[in-house]
Design brief:
335 residues, Peroxisomal Thiolase, Chain A, domain 1, 2 domains, five-stranded mixed β-sheet, four-stranded mixed β-sheet, 10 helices, globular, binds acetyl coenzyme *A
């Protein structure tokens, strides 16, 4: 008798970053700041930035190809592609272009926006399609180019962000490796962190006016976002661990959204876990929004910090407000 494939396994991860490096010292020539301030407050030393003619979808494609290669699959195996992004190249969505360029001609593809929690929300969404038996193989790719939406004179925000993409392959499997999942949102805190529309009224005719719209640069109340993250992220991780019936000390590696090293350290302290159990790429890549979790996961895999069979917590938090955590066992289940 064949077993029902109602579980999920995590079989591949990939990442791609722009070539150009922008260091804190270089930034200090653009805006009044210093390497000392940025590093001591955030843990960031440098970030990668897309050049004016570079395309975010090239990064999404490269990360996806690496994840598929590691999973031992081709694009033709994919049933589902979800692109987690707040900065698509086209406001109507970019996932179908990524799928087309990959050659994932059988897959249905769509964008999902949940700011810096986008990757965790997208994994949670893909998991539902796999668990119901609707699809067997999914690619979640997260890509953001937030440096394109910054006011480079606003030192409260422009020092924090970088660009990048990360991807992960999920496959249906009889033994479920997604051990716990908790997702949250609260629009009452939406004004803390926004990339809002701005616009002007255009009189089309005497009695009919419309609005012409663009987007304003990112606005963030850093202190309030910091307090929210330190308060809520440990709680959502504990809930996901409770669902997984695991304690915080049974997790091999925590892969959290990379916003601030002080947030990672505070969450580690609240969970009573040594800080070195928390993977970090903040120093080199800064906050790459939805992409930060899979980029950090990929580096953890490449460095050997994460191995096949490792128990992982992935958690995101950010605009919306949105936040969430998942607990999983990494790698392909032996047949
Ligand atoms: N360089 C030098 N000085 C600065 C800079 C800078 N880049 N930025 C702010 N300052 C100054 C401020 O003007 C202020 O000066 P003042 O005391 O004279 O007014 C002083 O430094 C302290 O400013 P704070 O905002 O209190 O600094 P804080 O220690 O809170 O750190 C930070 C700010 C790093 C933004 C922190 O609040 C933080 O990390 N918040 C969370 C951000 C986050 O998690 N975002 C995640 C989501 S992102 C997303 O979803 C897209």
């Amino acid at each position: 008798m064949t077993q029902a494939l109602t579980g999920i396994q995590f079989t591949g991860v990939g990442k791609s970053l722009p070539q150009r490096v922008l260091t804190n010292d270089q930034l200090a020539t653009v805006v009044e700041t210093s390497d000392e301030w940025i590093h001591s407050r955030t843990g960031i030393r440098e970030r990668r930035v897309l050049g004016p003619t570079e395309n975010l979808l090239d990064l999404a494609l490269a990360a996806s190809e690496q994840a598929l290669c590691q999973a031992g699959l081709t694009a033709l195996d994919l049933d589902l592609v979800i692109l987690a992004t707040s900065t698509p190249e086209d406001l109507f969505g970019s996932a179908s272009r990524v799928a087309a360029r990959l050659g994932a001609v059988r897959a249905v593809a769509f964008d999902l926006t949940a700011a810096c929690t986008g990757f965790v929300f997208a994994v949670g969404t893909a998991a539902q399609f796999l668990r119901t038996g609707c699809y067997r193989t999914a690619l979640v790719v997260a890509a953001d180019g937030l440096t394109r939406w910054l006011d480079w004179q606003d030192r409260n925000t422009c020092v924090l962000f970088g660009d990048g993409a990360g991807a992960m392959v999920l496959e249906a499997c009889p033994v479920d490796q997604l051990l716990g999942l908790e997702l949250r949102s609260d629009g009452r805190g939406a004004d803390m962190l926004t990339l809002p529309t701005t616009g002007e009224t255009v009189a089309l005719m005497a009695d009919l006016a419309v609005r012409n719209q663009q987007y304003a640069p990112i606005y963030m109340n850093g202190r309030d976002v910091y307090r929210f993250a330190v308060r809520e992220v440990p709680v959502v991780i504990e809930k996901a661990l409770h669902r997984a019936q695991l304690r915080s000390d049974q997790v091999d590696c925590y892969v959290l959204h990379q916003a601030n090293q002080r947030i990672l350290d505070a969450v580690a302290e609240r969970l009573q876990v040594p800080p070195d159990r928390f993977a970090t790429t903040l120093d080199r890549y800064a906050n790459t929004s939805a992409a930060s979790v899979p980029i950090t996961l990929c580096e953890g895999w490449e460095s050997g910090q994460i191995r096949s069979g490792s128990v992982l917590v992935m958690a995101g938090f950010g605009a919306g407000l949105t936040w969430g955590a998942l607990v999983c066992r990494w790698g392909r289940v032996s047949p």
